[in-house]
Amino acid sequence: MKEEYQVPTIPSKQVPLPHINTTISSRKFVSPFHSVSVPDPEKKGRVARQIPQASLPLLSRDLTYIIVPNSRRKRFALALKPGKSLEVRTPPSYTSADMLTYEKYIVSNQDWISRVYDKYQNREKGAPESLSEAFPERNYILYLGMKYPFHIQPHIASEHTWIALEQNSFFEIRASKSDSKELCTALSTWYYKQAEEILPPLVEKYAAIMKLPVPDLTYNCAKSRWGVCYPTRNQIRFNILILKTPPECIEYIVVHELSHFYVSSHSREFWKTVSSYMPDYKTRRKKLAAYRTVL
23 falls in which pLDDT band (50, 70, 90)? Predict the structure, then answer.
């Protein structure tokens, strides 16, 4: 972490819970957040811990997180999926000092955790009550990093739902006001069409710069990844939701995936490859991180 996090003062509270044996570290770990070991709910031998609400004012809840070691991972990362605890994905071995770092990082990113929690809870509530609520952004549609207002007009019975960006200033939508699922499908279809127009020329441009054969492109609407590269198939699969991000972020995603044809992992050599073709990739990557909630 570049910035030092000031540990908040927390009233001492002893909570008797079962002890977890772990072979990762034999030293006794004492957290400044008064976190306590809790049984792993999935009983897979991973270490589960808890940070009390006193350290997480934005979440307003105790937070259980699970440390998930992986032999292929070089750095730690946070992951949160529907119906599961927060995961801290780590390298295969770590120390007590690393665990302190994980908890400080969780506390400093509680705003992001709160937003993702809320997004999953909204999904579980079922279908939206109105057409305007069918969009994650509610009052606008995101396209290439810009927020566009939209106008919904009822269509005639024989007409299909359609969406169009008018004069590059607002979206005109013809749809049944009683069928929000139809509207969501129409919007996804529109993003697919835009992806098929925008991404192939961009991939061809950077493939030529990087001296690579132009890969086959496929598209999906994923919930966790902007894109996936399959070097053995000479294929890249892009998430159509990248069309919600600014053009410079889309270019970064393209270069990122193409770089995997040279280096499959996210090793230091991989980031050197990305940097050699896009020196300002860190700025673009940081900007892209602000759009994670659209997935």
Answer: very low
Contacts (Cβ under 8 Å, ≥6 apart) of 116: 80, 293
Give the pTM.
Answer: 0.59
- Mean pLDDT estimate for the chain: 76
Rounding to the nearest 10 degrees, give the CA dihedral for residues 109, 245, 142, 82. Answer: -40
Q: Are 225 and 236 in contact (CB under 8 A)?
A: no
Supply the pLDDT for residue 62.
72
How do the domains of the chain map onto residue ranges? 1-126, 128-185, 198-294
Backbone angles phi and psi of 109, in degrees to 5: -110, 25
Comparing 267 with 294, which gets the higher pLDDT? 267
Dihedral angle over CA of 71, 116, 34, 43, nearest 10: -50
The CATH H-level (homologous superfamily) assignment of domain 198-294 is Metalloproteases ("zincins"), catalytic domain (3.30.2010.10)
Residue matched to tokens 């977890």: 20
Mean pLDDT is highest, among 12-26, 146-160, 172-186, 274-288, for: 274-288
Q: What is the four-CA torsion angle of 31, 36, 39, 43, rounded to 10 degrees?
A: -20
- CA–CA gap between residue 85 and residue 64 (Å, rounded): 6
